[in-house]
Amino acid sequence: MVCSAYGQEEMCTHYGVMGLADELALAGVPTLRFDYLGACNSDDGDVCLRGFVEDTVRAVECLRQHCGPLPVVLAGVRLGAMVALSSSGRVAGVAGVVLMAPVLSGRTYMREVRAAAAVSRLASLDPPPQAGSGEVLNTNGFHWSAMLQDEVSTADLTHLTALHAPLLVLPSPQDRQSPKVAEKWAATGAPVSVVPFAEYGTWMQDPTLHSNPVQAFAAIRNWLKELPAVEEKELHGTLPGSTRTLRGEGFMEEPVRFGPDQSLFGILCLPADGKAAEVAALLLHEGSSYTIGNGRAYVKLARTLARQGIASLRIDLSATGDSPARNTRHPHYDLERIPESVAALDLLQQRGFPVAVAFGQCAGAYTAYQVVLADERIVGGVITNIQKFTWHYGDDIAVSFRDNKRSLKGYWRAMRSKGEWKRVLRGDADMSGIVRVLLKRGFMQVTHQVKSLLPPAPDSEMAIVHAQMRRLAQRGVQLHLLFSDDDPGLSEMWMQFGRKARRLKNFAPIRMTLVKHADHHFNGSDARERFYELASVWMKEAVASRAASIVVR
What we know:
By secondary structure, the protein is an alpha/beta fold. The chain has helices at 8-26, 49-67, 79-87, 106-118, 146-154, 177-187, 200-203, 214-225, 297-307, 338-350, 363-374, 397-403, 408-414, 418-426, 431-451, 461-475, 489-497, 525-552, and strands at residues 2-3, 72-77, 94-100, 137-139, 142-144, 167-170, 192-194, 246-248, 251-258, 264-271, 279-284, 312-316, 355-361, 378-384, 478-484, 511-515.
């Protein structure tokens, strides 16, 4: 039983946890992953630590319905490790507990969470509240309720004396507390093993660049082999009592498999009564997230649209989320992944939705844009903070990350943020990289300003992008290019379409919209709500346009 982390840490480790579960299953160990209530793809509800423990106990019951009354090992990542250890005393027959980079002192952990929020780029939009204020804490779009903050802050497992099963502790290199606590537990005679989690740093980072902790997972498998053996049994079918449909307020959702060898994962969200417009939304996540979207944005958007009578399909491209890897290249800037999105359109068409509007943000915006170009079943697009209209095959995504800094306007705003100055003083800001990128951008903008006085050269990047836009305009695609007003992607827009994208008017009905005081991922509370409002309006326009075209025909 795997208890996940929470918030951005869950986002970073989600794909790895799926890999761990797959490895254990191949080794003959049935493994269940689940989402806490109010988190990830589960139903909406109060998010609290007590609820996480209750969910874990119920998940164990579900697993045993399938596997029988066998011993169970509880494994947890970060805050999920606290959940796993807290749940072990409430579950009978626990054979062991695995703690991966565990949170043992909730007070220390919440202090770190708030400190990170205070120096983040989001701090100027959603300043982190004081501890005990009763206000919501926003970390990268994930909201920590006052209840969750208070419960975690008061949780302390460092003084735990009654251990209910053998423990495997994998402390991160920066964690000095867990090894000492494990040593104290071992001194009481408890069976405790400690294996350094050397790969933690390469796992707990943006999923676009991270790698799974191969050595740590091998250590877990080897430790499990040392536990007392149990009788093997053959398992069949799905979990008894489980359902493929999640029904919530005004919506119902079904997990789906599609694409080559049914290897791609998605969630189809429909209105509660099953009656939806012919136009569906295809939600393509950014490179740093999966089906839920950054800060669970796509979950809320999908359910909001469902309540308005509009269906949606949010998917994981291969090598992200719950879709296994089919190649090792970055999923969003790889043209070989475009057919995966087309396969999603095939699924929508099979389910009664002949046309769709493609949504994408950041790297996902590039994928969405390419799908709009590739398939005429796409009648609209919401392309948010796209960074590149063209991608040269073989380009290194890491280099793009290095060169993708803020806009000049963004830096002027950052200068008014105490958190940003703290980052500079602590040495966390890449000052040399910032200077390098600003100089590079300045040179490129001057060059493009000069070139803009002349017609674009044939086969130039500008000529290619203009030809693409002309095709979309001729098709009547309602393409919305949405940007936060200080996003670095605006430099790409100015380069392709002139200052303030003045040449975009030549490609109607394609439009650009700027949202003030929005971060790159629209994680700020006000910006996120504005995104939902615009998405709803544009989807309703697409539905109305579709209905009008049917009447005309």
